[in-house]
Automatic annotation (TrEMBL):
NAD(+) binds at V17, D38, R43, G83, A84, V122, T123, N124, S147. Allosterically activated by fructose 1,6-bisphosphate (FBP). It comes from Gryllotalpicola daejeonensis. It comes from the Bacteria. This is L-lactate dehydrogenase. The keyword NAD applies. Its main location: cytoplasm.
Amino acid sequence: MPNLRTTKLGIIGAGAVGTSLAYAALIRGAADELAIYDLNPARAEAQVLDLAHGTPFAHRTKVTGGGDLSFLAASDVIVVTAGAAQLPGQSRLDLVNTNAEIIRDLMPRLVKQSPDAIYMIVTNPVDVLTEVAADVAGLRRGQVIGSGTTLDTSRLRWLVAEAAGVAPRDVHSMILGEHGDSAFPLWSNATIGGSPIREWADESGTKIFDDAKLDELANQAVLSAYSIIAGKGATNYAIGLACVRLVEAILRDEHMVTPVSTVLRDYEGLDGIALSVPCVIGAGGVQRVLRVPMNQTEHDAFHRSGSALRAVLEEIGQL
């Protein structure tokens, strides 16, 4: 019988995010093999063993890992979650210098192990680090992506769905820009079940999404991470699930449309920085960057995100 091609997902970091991602991938059967690397070999090996013990109840997945990067050889997708953790009250951009150095050291060594892999950056500040990773990796465009505002978008869809009384899958809205305080919703083309969000009404016919309500939902979506971090120290489950969906889209060549962070080329007047915009995700990573209409308010918000990121990149000598 011919050998069937197997898929391999590599994960950098055996902390809360990396193991939540691994656990979600195991349950969903996202890849045939999971390989976990951590600077602390004992922690990585313990996580591998714990996950492997659950495979009789999940998909048939080989789980390996430890403190050697060779475990990640021949990976199809490598997700980078390792880095200094965000502390309560600390912005994502405060993390930049420490984590940029980690990425600069790590990426060339990873590329030696898996030159054809798609690299997904999750470590914060994700947009800055996506730009750094793409620069030092020297890979083709689209091969390095950041999880970006995929999670912010998920948070927004859930919040809108709760307010509207519908399933989140029937809410079509996106958050673009920085994965951080300057992120913004694309309300101008948001819909619920095909109806423009501003036209959505409750059973009495009263429209419920006025400017004040939309501003409230946007703030909750963008800032919710801070309350989660204050309460339990990290956000991990939702980002784990979000990243697994991106991994599935890549490994299954789904051509899924979602906002991810990618280095932009003349997009709404911005060039050479990584921000989240709608992209087609499939085999090869970012297959296409989509250009979506923005009203003037959204255009201005997009440029504010760009200015915030550009300032940080200049500070660390990346631009």
